[in-house]
Amino acid sequence: MKVITDRGNFQTVKILIAAKAQTAGSGSGTDLKVTEVKHGEKVVPYLTESKLPVLEVKPEKFLFSVNSAVRLLLTSTGIESDSKQIDEWLEWESSQLLPYVFPVLVNHIGHNKTDKQSDSLLQPLLTYLNTSVKNKTYLVGDSLTSADVCVFGTVYPLTSTPILKGFPELTSWIEKLSLIDAFKEAISIVTQNKGPVVFKESLLSQPAMPSPDSLTSKSTSKSSSVSSQPTESSEVEKQLTEEELNAAEKCWRDGVAKLPELRERKHPILPIKGEKNILICSALPYVNNVPHLGNIIGCVLSADVYSRYCRLRNYNSVYLCGTDEYGTATENKALEEGLTPQEICDKYNKLHTEIYDWFNISFDHFGRTTTTEQTKIVQDIFWKVYNNGHVIKDSIDQLHCDKCNRFLADRFLADRFLAGRFLADRFVSGICPMCSYDDARGDQCDGCGKLINAVELINPKCKSCTSTPTVKTTQHLFLDLPKLEPELRQHLDKAFDNGLWTHNSKVITNSWIRDGLKPRCITRDLKWGIPVPLEGYTDKVFYVWFDAPIGYISITATYTKDWEKWWKNPNEVELFNFLGKDNVPFHSVIFPCTLLGANDNFTLVKHMSATEYLNYEDTKFSKSRGVGVFGNNAKDTGIPADVFRFYLLFVRPESQDTAFSWDDFLLKNNSELLNNLGNFINRLRDSIRNILSISRLGNQMMQANKPWVLVKRTPDEKARAGSVVSLAANIAWLIGVLLQPYMPSTSEIICTQLNGNPKNMVIPTQFIPVLKTGHKIGKPSPLFQKIEASLIEEMKKKFQGKQEKSVPAKPEVKSAPANSVLPKASDSEIASITDQVTKQGEVVRELKTQKAEKSKIDKEVALLLDLKKKLSLAQGIDPATASSNKKKGKKK
Ligand SMILES: Nc1ncnc2c1ncn2[C@@H]1O[C@H](COP(=O)(O)OC(=O)[C@@H](N)CCS)[C@@H](O)[C@H]1O
To answer: Complex ipTM, two decimals?
Structure first.
């Protein structure tokens, strides 16, 4: 890797610290070369302006966000892992701190003068930082992270200015870090030990910093949810060049001609030679239950967003899913409901279909696994794997219920060969040997979350007849994973390099292969499954996890007779799996090994997007305990599906478990949707946050230009009003298109209101105004409705389940008020204060939008903070804990 920079560029320090810290922390750092170029030189060919420093990751592949470069260096050697807190600090640093520090440095170091205005604008941020570093060495946790490197890199040049006077904690933090070798060495390389004077030329050669971003709430502290717009005085005017003005005019006139038309979707969609052919598979939800919101964000919704995005980019993609219908869980449900397993599958497959329809999940095909295609393909694959010598026969011990005459313990099978991860045994329960929870399952305890061997259960009972099981020995078939391991490793090396894999999917996969794979049992002594066709085993069925992923193939076969074009075409098809973290090994290790064992040119996974877990408030979703919102409940709330989609995507558990919280749901709806997005459209995480950011810019553009005022003035001003409104309409169209993957109904309303051409609903590579001069828009109407706090309180009660049995979520869940230690106020009191917080938030936002006087805004912000404290107290949370929790979990 190469750092390309100009002499004395203070931002280079960050990358160098990260590289040095990498070597110090892992022993083997990246081989990082520093190449010096002229000040202001354009290095990245596709950027219109000079951007220095940049990290050249591979030849011609640049990271031009310094913070991303730092994050890459520190995560690639495992010095730090994904962390929302670190990301929050980085976002705050780049969107708030740096844009305010930069003009101060330009004035003090570049021009050797003081500018009171820029100095004073920086004060609140420094005050916040001063408090945050009090008695601390590191901003997040107890070791060095990118957060420290990036914040330090930006503030340390201030030590040469008088501005840090009055910030003793911050000064001492900078001093502490400066003593660390990596910091010392990096500073010495950049300053050549001449002090900050070396920054001067580089500072003066850099393009003006964009005005502080309002991507996140633009408030002093990164934890407050008060949102604001940049004040006029803080904005750095950017002079447009002649070239840029000409390009904008050309784009306005001819841009739309460059926009490709949206491709028509004709089923069945098949791969096209030479195109990007994307096969999108969402994990197949178990049919035995109604999916909860965790299932929805974990697989079908995430895949839906990607699939919709692919369509808007005109990629040749197909999105498939269906219900996973075999296995013990279905048999159990059938017993519970007095139906046959097939009746259960039919009933719940229909329920799943209705729920996904309501959530607007746009499968190209939604199938199921109890089909003749599935039986045929599973047995065919088995024979190939068997005939290729990748199946082992062995005997094992299992729990057996003599009264029901059936085996109970799947887990036992696994333990002997595999450390037994993830095998569910739901026919047996007992007392957990670890925590004494009295309803532990045979595979895992819901009380303490630990994995259990069914035979270790105290007082085990058959779930259907409650008698005590005995241990029996039976013959089973095992997939010879050790033999397939070298081929799998080869495949994974390539896929990790060329594909998109979430951090957790790589970590989980590596943890499985790190110690060598073990044979995996693929048969079960059950009735409800695909019959094993091998002589001597015909009374058994395939284990559900052997057949489930093959379901992707058979579901494709029920979609098109040409299914092999997708599934036996590894060079032209990119397979993308969406799933929750517990599903990772089945998709990255076991299923690929099955397909490699079959040796029939199968398409293997190239990309994997795995989520962490979504919890419900401060607990886990539990159907049996009635805790949480399930797919069908969401519909009954009367709140539109798009609002659920928006919120689930906003809190999508990407780097750690997150929680669905009704209070937060209300705030996000009433602030982000109603006041930001809804507000802008009706004037007329990379993800939905960027769309909100575009919408904020649109709001700012309207507010700054006030076309409703201009239109009443001189002819020139009237013409400008027209340009502003046209631009706003085109921004709204862009938002409508970009929103389509996330909130399809809202997107349709926006685009219909704008009366644009549906064929222009394509995501462009640059902003193209598609609504031309003279275009007539349709009838505007409000996009979103306010959610009342009283409704939220009602929902909380409705979905809290039987409280005494609810199972606490693991402590890492951040957003719920888990550490409540104070007495709680009544629900109606909480509802009323929540309402006041929302209203006061609106007051503050409005004042900021109007660019009211600072003292006036400060007064209202103080009131808002007081109300928030009151709300925390009412919820039984110590406000100090609440604010630190918010800090950790805010950027959801
Ligand atoms: N709480 C959760 N948060 C996020 N994702 C979750 C959560 N719980 C489960 N999941 C994922 O949902 C899908 C479907 O899960 P289900 O248990 O219904 O089905 C299966 O795991 C298998 N039938 C998949 C066979 S391909 C899954 O990806 C979970 O990881």
So the answer is: 0.99
